[in-house]
Amino acid sequence: MGLDMYLYRKEYISGTAWTQDEKAIKEANLYSVIADHFDIPSNGSHLHAEIDICVAYWRKANAIHGWFVNTLAGGVDECQPIYVSLDNLKELRELVNSVLLTPAFAGDILPTQSGFFFGSSDIDEWYISDMKNTVEMIDKIISSVSPDSYNRFYYQASW
Prior knowledge:
Structural class: alpha+beta
Number of helices: 5
Radius of gyration: 19 Å
Order of helices and strands: EHEHEHHHE
Number of domains: 1
Distance between the termini: 6 Å
Largest sheet: 4 strands, antiparallel
Number of strands: 4
Strand content: 15-25%
């Protein structure tokens, strides 16, 4: 048991978007799998689905968890899905970069959170490792999405 933390990207797929670009070909393969599983007619024209793709995972990174809960959920921590915008992710990345540049102020910038199964509340090498991993994951997410597309992200933790 422990604090497991997930960031999901919601993707809407529609059977009506049958163009021949790379994304449409990948989606067509997904339509085929969904259609077969649910016994939907093969043309898929009326198939509309929303899928969750896990784009980031943390384990016991309680300072990051605290930021999501306190900043985006008004301090309510009930393992509920929390909406996260692309701008929110950029804001978190800036805070994490500040921690990495000035670790002496880490406790003021992104304080640790205590809780049952939340892991250590020390600002140590594990904390810094969580910060580095967070920057890497957010950079990968930001580089993989089109800023003009409709991007929806949700954070959810469990313990």
